[in-house]
Amino acid sequence: MHADRRWARSAVAAAGAVIVFTTACEGPSASADGDKGNPSPGASAQVTRTHSPPAATKSSPNPGFAAFQGKPCPKLTAVDKSNGYQITTVASPREGITVHPGGEPQTVLVKLCNTTGKELRDIALSAQVEWNYAGERPPKLTVERREAPDGDWHPVELVMANDYQPLTGASGARDLPPHGTRTVEYRISAAEDAPAGQGGFDIHAVRADADPLDMEDMRGGGSGGFPLTTDPRE
Q1: What is the predicted pLDDT for the residue at 212?
Q2: What integer is the mean pLDDT of 129-143?
Q3: Could you give the count of Cα atoms lying within 13 Å of 94 in the half-sphere of its Cβ?
Q4: Residue 101 has what DSSP assignment?
Q5: Alpha carbon distance 103, 189 (integer Å)
Q6: Where are the stretches annotated Disordered (predicted)?
Q7: Can you tell me the distance from the alpha carbon of 224 to that of 129, in angstroms, rounded to the nearest whole number?
């Protein structure tokens, strides 16, 4: 995830907070998917957001949920600790997914792990890909998220940015019990005319009411993800 590189960029962004976080008090709600949350700040001019259609109907549980739920939680790495992270993530499939324009949606299970002995309150999630995921063209991806194994699907605001943007588009805030876990499932599909693309699909866990100008506040969550590819070849 190159978290250290992104935190360096975040520190620069914080220094130029007038540009990056000018709408911190007036941004979109962090509870777009119906869970509790707080407003997330607006993004800089470098951020493009793609919006998903209304939530689809509930579907069957992911067949791999039981096996995935039993996987051990990752430990904090040295980089995680230096960034102040308290949450680690693991995804399945680890190799990521490939979506095809107009093809069937693909799903990934993601588990958040609280590495501390204290409750982490109001942890929201955001999704981000690099600006050049599809050669600087809109990726035309639809992203949804649900609480695994069989919660309702809710649209996710996918953020495209080269800077670390954990609060932009954050939603679905929930408490994470001491040493507890939370498993969510992401469903991703590509439009008929989606361009080819490849890169990391980053998931940021952060307190919904974090102060974007306070690095300690911002570092209380964690970051993880999986490889994502849009391949037009069937």
Answers
A1: 79
A2: 95
A3: 4
A4: B
A5: 7
A6: 28-69, 213-234
A7: 12
